[in-house]
Amino acid sequence: MYEAFWEKMGDRCTVEIKGCDSLSYFSNPKNPCWFLEPKLEEAIRSLHGAVGNAVTDGYSIVVGTGSSHLVNAVLYALTSNHQPNQISVVSAAPYYSAYPEIADLVRSGLYKWAGDARQFDKDEPYIELVTSPNNPNGVIQGSVVNRDGGILVHDLAYYWPQYTPITSSLEFNIMLFTASKCTGHAGSRIGWALVKDKEVAKRMIKFMEVTTIGVSKESQLRVANILQFIADGCKQFGSPQGDNFFEFGQSLMKKRWQILREILKENQMFTIPKYPLDQHCNFFGDITNAHPAFAWMKCKEEIEDCEKLLRGHQILARSGRRFGSDPGFVRVSMVGREDEFNLFIDRLSKIQSFNNGDE
Ligand code: PMP
């Protein structure tokens, strides 16, 4: 979706890496996170400062191969101090479909997936993954279990101005971010964690050491350039060069959501969640709305399998079942390439004509 922006920027974010560059495992032996490139750390702090979505002062930064790597690292870090029993990992349904897979893949003796946080009634320690805005439904949410012995991990992959109004600079104990959703550079596989407790950060770093001995320097240097570029561009609103990445992203998301809402209004086949209107966004200094990265669509009551219905119209969507919800829901991506989005809209509008008996 963001390719058009980066194409327009041409060579302004090109990074040259010579054959003799960045050979060592080490980036900065003085930093406990010794594989974190100083330029990337600087760019991350500068971007959060410019956007105002998270506090970085007093936080350790741990870089990962995407934030997926960091979810693994954080589960290890929070459970590896000799707990006698496996710790339950929960998240409020509908939750990001990768969490159960990540938690249970290697059948760890340290932790296990325990499903929907709303159903969690055990009187024992737990980890709650709080995703806000949420994947799949874009809802802004907080923790739901709220019991003693709980540790919260905030996955803030979508807390950027193109998706949601930035209403405060967050200061949770563990916050996860990723370049994938911020700038669109999913292929570079760079995510970062802002961690308040130095011991937790240390154990996350240990996990990185043992699993991958750090994170690709080429990727870090490329993403450092990209993040610094968009942080600098934040200072200019309405610039004729169109350097403000978030302005570009928000206007594209806004347009896509307008188109989707119009189609849904006409066809009356699906509903989508109601998002709070008119919130003040500290970044834009204006009232803005939510434009989630996914549309969480619910089919009319009589259709049980929404994914199947859409597949019949050549629309690939992910069933609500995968997110701990029911198959009457589907998640559709709003952040694909322009031609994919246009095809989706075209095919969705045909479902409407079919059901009106026009086809
Ligand atoms: N968290 C959430 C909520 C996500 O939606 C995603 C990507 N779909 C990730 C984490 C992982 O992102 P990545 O590994 O690409 O950084």
UniProtKB/TrEMBL annotation:
Keywords: Pyridoxal phosphate, Transferase
Domain of life: Eukaryota
Pfam family, one: Alliinase_C
Entries under Gene3D superfamilies matching the protein: Aspartate Aminotransferase, domain 1, Type I PLP-dependent aspartate aminotransferase-like (Major domain)
One Gene Ontology biological process: amino acid metabolic process
GO molecular function: carbon-sulfur lyase activity; transaminase activity
Domain Alliinase C-terminal: 1-351
Family to which the UniProt record says this protein belongs: Belongs to the alliinase family.
Protein's recorded name: Putative pyridoxal phosphate-dependent transferase
Species for this entry: Helianthus annuus
